[in-house]
Amino acid sequence: MPTKSPKHTSSNHFYAIDFDQVETSTRYFQENSRVCTSYELPAVWFKEKKGDLFVAYGSLSGSIWSKEGDAAPTKEDIRNDFIEKFDGRYGGKAEAKWDGTYFWSPETPWDETVQLQKLLHSYYEQFPKIPDGFDGWWSLK
Prior knowledge:
Layout: E1 3-4, E2 14-17, E3 23-29, E4 34-49, E5 52-67, H1 75-85, E6 93-98, E7 103-104, H2 110-126, E8 135-139
Antiparallel strand pairs: 1-8, 2-4, 2-8, 3-4, 4-5, 5-6, 6-7
């Protein structure tokens, strides 16, 4: 279960999460009249590896099960579900990383890489400030 931390310390895994930009997909299971709403939340996290700091951008995911006919989960439902259930043992799904020198983002279209690198560079330079539009720092231990 994640908890909110007053500040980021690089010796732990802390995430800044954008709960407003959630992406969802829904699967229906007719055999038991159940519905699974999967969600992905954009996230930024910093990690120290071999004494070097890097910033990563990607997503954290989860799912909400309900009965067929129930209302679709709201953003608030997803936020509450994430806070209640997410344990972070698998970390985030990184889409891009930046360590101040090297940029990694194998699936980003070429025309978007410069913009993404600039964004990660600004997060890196402003560390440990929480990036604008994100809520943090969340510890997922």
